[in-house]
Amino acid sequence: MHLLVLTDRPGGSKSLLPSLEYLDHTTQDARIEASSLLGMRNCDAVVIDATQDLRQAAGASRSASLHEWAKPVIVVMSESGLAALKATWGFDEWLLPNTTPAELETRLRLVAERAAAADSGRAASVGDLVVDRVSYQVRLRGQPRALTYKEFELLKALANAPNRVFTRELLLQEVWGYDYFGGSRTVDVHVRRLRAKLGPEYEQMIVTVRGVGYKLVPLGQRERRGPEDE
Question: Which of 68, 72, 121, 128 could form a disulfide with 92 if both were Cys (CB 3.0 to 4.6 A apart)?
Fold first, then answer.
């Protein structure tokens, strides 16, 4: 795992959690301040030092849990500060600074497993494309794409079943509802807009199946298309 460690200690993460020295994890140390949360984009979990300033740590924990690149949040507490720990901090796990390497490794593994299980339920991933059903965000290589509600719903329907061919009629039912009286041309128009917003590198992920409809394929599978694909 790659850990973003927010601490103001002179010794950084090695001083906060000495057991990290014996484990195969990488760390990035940063001060406990808002700008440091930008590092969440490339980490697997955030470790926050709550052994000194509890109020500052609580604010950092809440901000990290609500961040657009939110990752599991782990707070490191001293035994004397445990009574101040509250669920409102938004953390996923807590540790004592003197935790053993075996316990630290186990806690990190469990945090990663819980995060993976949660992500599988809230987001559909197709290659570099992530469609988050909860936050209504679409990201490509971590970069957000601004979509309208119908564009998001259309992409979500395709991403929920990669490589499955959806007829225009089925997409109309799933996205616009059974009581929609417009023609299937609406689907074609929204697909064109989606492709434009995905950009030149990724527009080919939405494949037109001639005479049928559309399917979403991971980038790189496009070369193995069948004769029915355009």
Answer: 72
CATH of the domain at 187: 1.10.10.10
Contact assessment for residue 202 and residue 128, using Cβ atoms and an 8 Å cutoff: yes
pLDDT in tens, 107-122: 999 999 888 777 666 6
Q: Which domain holds residue 150?
A: 127-224
User: Could you read off the pLDDT of 164-180 as tens digits, one per residue?
Assistant: 999 998 998 888 886 67
Contacts with 96 (C-beta within 8 Å, 6 or more apart), sequence order? 76, 77, 78, 79
0.70 surpassed by pTM:
no
Q: Check whether residue 161 and residue 188 sit in a common domain.
A: yes
In a domain, 133, yes or no: yes
Position 229 in a domain: no
**Residue pair 93/110 in contact by the 8 Å Cβ criterion:** yes
